[in-house]
């Protein structure tokens, strides 16, 4: 038997006390930062945080916290969070020199997370031919989102000149879009896009702590942020693929914000004391793309019939509780002067559709519709509704629910679903970009757009806003509807479940704005 | 089944005694087995009469009447078991799901039994090097987690209905093969096989007409034991989105579709889950009982 005397007992107590005191400084350090942690449940993450490679409806919300665009679009310049005013950011001012040239002055007070000040060279490199728009850019998707640049050059330490090949009056808006997230030149060159995508360094309000693709991203406040100290100490984006689990996690207090909820979750959140739904119709459209050189789909009449058979209102009323918006034509009000509020809506005419199917001599052979399982909110349910609508006009559409985009895009595709985010609010997007000569419908989906369509697209891209551009854009939208390379379904509503004590508003875009002016904790 | 012997009153082993024993076994069927058998009968009846029983078509949508609670629980809706997220009648979908799940399970079980029996017989007939090779295949299959195996096949070949039936069929073939090989090897040593051989019957004739008939009972029991597993595999694959594709419907797909609505429309998950659970349980209970009745060693 062992006895412990008083001295030993005291020694033991002292040791225990010392051990307990050891981790104390760390706790104290954490205690000194009273800012709360924000936990966000998301439906997915991009496999990279390289800001252009990550462009997607799951990537943008994270990269927007890590990076700043050269110019900033102030979504809160109107009450609904869909403002289009451009305000200084990394660029403290900009000046249009002529129809092809914009000169930007870089602010002195913006720093990267590694402490380096942003220079004109960093900005010029971020939008350089080498990285984005040359023959073999480091970021292969760069050209799709870039302007037709002739040159991007740093004139001196604080000034950059952007020059396009043809007149481009939307260049300033583009410099406030997702192509213009600024990266540090030296570090980016040293790491290359792939490594940089795993260890990104930007100027945004939050810097990276951990990135586990497919699982979570952890960010931490960047206190030297040029718009002031961020209001959260830490932000975690946690992947929770099932929508029911995201909603349940929000209600149970595991998460503070749950993204990509469906209107069905609204019922669930109603009557909860601590959480509420906040939503915004975003500048995005859910779409169908038809493989223009595939069997049956190469016949314009079949494509038109597919479009005429879709009862969009029924889908929106049933699946979106009437909250998604059916656009009148391929346009959004944020286009400003080029938007035509009087443009007739997409037609729903099953009789005409049935006649077209008959005329095309369709023999009942199944047409494949490929989709992932709810990558887009409500996409499978909408597909099943359309499948019945198409059946009613005599088209036998088979639903193929696949595992990854590789399978969706593999040979044999006939119909797929897609979405177009409006990179910036301008009539040139997406009809002259995603659907233009360099977009995937013309490049890989076999759409042989008429010469007239592509000529009109080029004109719309280069004209100054005004009557002429308005008219030509509307013609372009008419032609798109006539050639029917795809179908516009609706503008989805992005629904977030949010803890009531958090002062945060959604914007009319697929990213979240977590900058200090839009994130408060009660 | 000790009661069988006392009831028979004759020397065990004779044909008459066996018949009597079996008849009496059926008479003294436990209540749970009775219940299981009734449930199975109900499921098979539903599968056969699905188009007449279901009040709506399985793909028939009334989108504006979606997520309506079940009339069975006193709600005023046109759907006995409620409607799903596209306004489809849950009852009709469950009935059609039973049909498809059972068709797949039956077809799968038959495929498994045929393949397994063929392999087992071949191994028993050829012996030596061939037997080693075939039994090694059996061991390989037995050591693989079947779900992973199934997922790999679907990933390679894409999913279609017939592939699904074949995959489900491949579940458990190795058990039939082992069983049949053992039974055939044992039967070869019995007097009747030797007698047949002595009168000049060739091996295949003996296998087809005599041994196969003698081992049918054991095979049937194995099939009932395997059947729930085939249902679970179909259900599992469909739940993962790799089995039956919409708008067709199966129990697994129904459960999978319901999981996003479980907090606001519990009734979509309820019926298919209950049906899947009861059906597998019933077949298990009945299969176990059949094994007990037919196993000489348990008497």
Automatic annotation (TrEMBL), chain A:
Domain Solute-binding protein family: 85-432
Subcellular localization, as worded in the UniProt entry: Periplasm
UniProt keyword terms in alphabetical order: Signal
Signal peptide: 1-29
SUPFAM superfamilies: Periplasmic binding protein-like II
Coiled-coil positions: none
Gene3D superfamilies (UniProt xref): Dipeptide-binding Protein, Domain 1, Dipeptide-binding Protein, Domain 3, Periplasmic binding protein-like II
Pfam families assigned to the protein according to its UniProt record, in alphabetical order: SBP_bac_5
Chief subcellular location: periplasm
Similarity section: Belongs to the bacterial solute-binding protein 5 family.
Protein name: Peptide/nickel transport system substrate-binding protein
């Amino acid at each position: 038997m062992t006895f412990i005397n008083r001295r030993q007992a005291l020694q033991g107590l002292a040791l225990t006390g010392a051990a307990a005191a050891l981790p104390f400084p760390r706790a104290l350090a954490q205690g000194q930062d009273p800012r709360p942690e924000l936990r966000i449940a998301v439906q997915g993450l991009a496999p990279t945080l390289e800001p252009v490679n990550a462009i997607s409806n799951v990537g943008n919300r994270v990269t927007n916290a890590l990076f700043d665009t050269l110019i900033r679009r102030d979504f809160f310049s109107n009450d609904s969070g869909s403002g289009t005013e451009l305000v200084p950011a990394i660029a403290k001012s900009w000046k249009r020199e002529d129809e092809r040239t914009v000169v930007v002055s870089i602010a002195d007070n913006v720093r990267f997370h590694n402490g380096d000040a942003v220079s004109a060279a960093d900005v010029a490199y971020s939008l350089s031919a080498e990285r984005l728009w040359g023959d073999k850019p480091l970021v292969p998707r760069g050209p799709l989102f870039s302007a037709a640049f002739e040159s991007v050059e740093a004139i001196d330490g604080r000034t950059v000149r952007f020059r396009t090949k043809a007149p481009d009056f939307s260049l300033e808006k583009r410099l406030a879009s997702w192509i213009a997230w600024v990266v540090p030149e030296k570090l980016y060159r040293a790491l290359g896009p792939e490594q940089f995508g795993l260890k990104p360094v930007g100027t945004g309000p939050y810097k990276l702590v951990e990135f586990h693709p497919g699982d979570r991203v952890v960010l931490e406040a960047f206190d030297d942020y040029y718009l002031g100290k961020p209001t959260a100490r830490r932000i975690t984006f946690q992947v929770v693929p099932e929508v029911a689990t995201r909603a349940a996690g929000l209600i149970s207090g595991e998460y503070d914000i749950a993204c990509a909820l469906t209107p069905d979750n609204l019922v669930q959140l109603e009557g909860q004391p601590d959480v509420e739904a906040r939503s915004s119709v975003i500048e995005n459209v859910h779409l169908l793309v038809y493989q223009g050189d595939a069997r049956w789909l190469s016949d314009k009449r079949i494509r038109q019939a597919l479009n005429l058979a879709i009862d969009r209102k029924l889908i929106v009323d049933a699946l979106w509780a009437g909250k998604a918006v059916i656009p009148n034509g391929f346009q959004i009000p944020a286009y400003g002067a080029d938007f035509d509020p009087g443009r007739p809506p997409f037609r729903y005419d099953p009789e005409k559709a049935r006649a077209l199917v008959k005329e095309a001599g369709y023999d009942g052979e199944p047409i494949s519709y490929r989709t992932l399982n709810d990558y887009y909110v409500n996409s499978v349910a909408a597909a099943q509704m359309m499948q019945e609508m198409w059946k009613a006009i005599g088209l036998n559409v088979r639903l193929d629910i696949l595992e990854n985009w590789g399978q969706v895009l593999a040979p044999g595709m006939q119909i797929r679903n897609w979405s177009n985010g409006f990179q910036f609010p301008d009539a040139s997007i997406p009809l002259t970009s995603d659907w233009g000569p360099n977009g995937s419908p013309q490049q890989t989906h076999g759409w042989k757009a008429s010469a007239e369509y592509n000529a009109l697209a080029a004109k719309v891209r280069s004209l100054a806003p005004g009557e002429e551009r308005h008219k030509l854009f509307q013609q372009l939208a008419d032609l798109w509807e006539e050639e029917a390379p795809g179908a516009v379904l609706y503008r989805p509503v992005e629904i977030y479940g949010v803890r009531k004590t958090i002062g945060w508003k959604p914007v009319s875009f697929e990213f979240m704005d977590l900058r200090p002016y839009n994130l408060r904790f009660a | 089944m000790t009661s069988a012997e006392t009831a028979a009153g004759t020397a065990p082993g004779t044909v008459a005694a066996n018949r009597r024993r079996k008849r009496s076994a059926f008479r003294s069927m436990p209540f749970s087995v009775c219940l299981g058998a009734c449930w199975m009968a109900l499921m098979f009846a539903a599968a056969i009469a699905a188009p007449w029983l279901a009040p709506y078509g399985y793909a028939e949508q009334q989108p504006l009447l979606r997520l309506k609670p079940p009339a069975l629980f006193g709600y005023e809706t046109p759907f006995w078991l409620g409607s799903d997220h596209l306004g489809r009648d849950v009852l009709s979908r469950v009935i059609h799901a039973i049909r498809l799940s059972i068709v797949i399970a039956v077809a799968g079980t038959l495929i498994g039994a045929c393949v397994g029996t063929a392999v087992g017989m071949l191994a028993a007939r050829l012996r030596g090097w061939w037997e080693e090779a075939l039994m090694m295949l059996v061991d390989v299959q037995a050591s693989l987690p079947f779900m992973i195996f199934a997922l790999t096949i679907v990933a390679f070949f894409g999913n279609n209905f017939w592939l699904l039936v074949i995959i489900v069929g491949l579940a458990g073939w190795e058990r039939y093969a082992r069983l049949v090989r053992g039974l055939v090897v044992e039967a070869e040593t019995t007097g009747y096989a030797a007698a047949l051989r002595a009168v000049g019957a060739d091996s295949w004739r003996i296998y087809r007409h005599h041994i196969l008939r003698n081992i049918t009972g054991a095979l049937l029991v194995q099939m009932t034991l395997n059947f729930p597993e085939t249902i679970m595999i179909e259900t599992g694959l469909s739940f993962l989105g790799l089995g039956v594709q919409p708008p067709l419907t199966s129990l697994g797909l129904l459960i999978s579709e319901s999981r996003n609505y479980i907090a606001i429309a519990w009734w979509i998950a309820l019926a298919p889950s209950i049906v899947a659970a009861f059906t597998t349980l019933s077949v298990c209970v009945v299969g176990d009982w059949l094994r007990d009745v037919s196993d000489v060693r348990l008497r």
